Amino acid sequence: MSFSESLLSLRLSIDYRSKPGVLRNLALQMRRGEILGLVGQSGSGKSTLALAILRLLGLRGGVSRGEIRFQGRDLMSLSEREMCELRGRQIGLVLQSPLSSLNPALRIGTQLAEAWRAHANGNREDCTRSILAALKSVSLPEGERFLRRSPSQVSVGQAQRVLIAMATLHRPPLLIADEPTSALDTITQAEVLRLFASLNRELGMAILYISHDLLSVASLCHRIAILHEGQIVECGETQQIFAQPTHPYTCQLIEALPRNPFESPDRGNTPGQQAMETAGVPAHVPTGKSQP
């Protein structure tokens, strides 16, 4: 991958006081405009890596060593003030528990307005216009009635869409989605995956999609990185990973699936379309190439 293609490049080791060596000299690169799936079992350090990229690891008592380069900037050398300017504007974050991630005491509209004002200058009309555009982009109601609701008055799926709207208000080049469908039912999971595919396709937004669900990763991602025992043990295009896995742990993950969605065409569909059907996402074929 050339420097001009690279959006994010990192090499990190991470320790917790009670658990040293969570990540060990982990190396990862992302292209501009691609969806990269990060797959690993629970406790493997996937969420730790997400926090480290945003320089928020200290909130959990973690310590990171190494290098994180984002759009040519060394994030490890930035001050906290500079990181505050970057979080949300250049890198968005969507977490796995939407209702607990929203402030229960504030209305949806108030929280979206605060997220807009954190990185934008303008009047009330500018703010409202941006919020309504964000709601439309995630297929949420654009009326005042919805904005006046509290988090307890919306469904889990709607709350997750609010978080995605909040994370993409400023059209960041990179969105980190940390297990964003784990709290959702199957139908809503498919809707959210289609939404991520649309954001990537229409905005050219790169997405680091963190999940333990291989089928959702297969339906959405251009490339997959496998995290095991603190390191990336395998990384490649989605179809390649499923068709020709090389690491024993990757083989074990794929063999545990009810069926390999890339094993053979069915009813004339391509393997990528089969993967999407299996995960309920008939709208996006991972090709291994980043979006324009």
Q: Can you walk through the features of this model?
A:
- There is one protein chain.
- With about 290 residues, the protein is an alpha/beta fold.
- Helices cover about 35% and strands about 25% of the residues.
- A hairpin with a 2-residue loop joins strand 1 and strand 2 (about 20-30).
- It contains 12 helices and 10 strands.
- The radius of gyration is 19 Å and the shape is globular.
- The two termini are about 15 Å apart.
- Residues about 265-275, about 280-285 and about 285-290 have low confidence and may be disordered.
- Helix 4 crosses helix 5 (about 125-135), helix 4 packs parallel to helix 7 (about 155-165) and helix 9 (about 215-220) crosses helix 12.
- Strands 6-7-8-3-9-10 form a 6-stranded mixed β-sheet, sandwiched between helices. A 4-stranded antiparallel β-sheet has the order 2-1-4-5, covered by helices on one side.
Q: How many strands? A: 10
Helix content: 25-40%
The overall average pLDDT, rounded, is 88
Structural class: alpha/beta
Termini separation: 16 Å
Which regions contain 5 or more consecutive residues with pLDDT less than 50? 267-276, 278-285, 287-292
Radius of gyration of CA atoms, rounded to a whole number: 19 Å
State the shape: globular
**Secondary-structure element string:** EEEHEEHEHHHHHEHEHEEHHH
How many helices does DSSP assign? 12
| Strand coverage percent | 15-25%
| Main sheet record | 6 strands, mixed
Largest sheet, spatial ordering of strands: 6-7-8-3-9-10
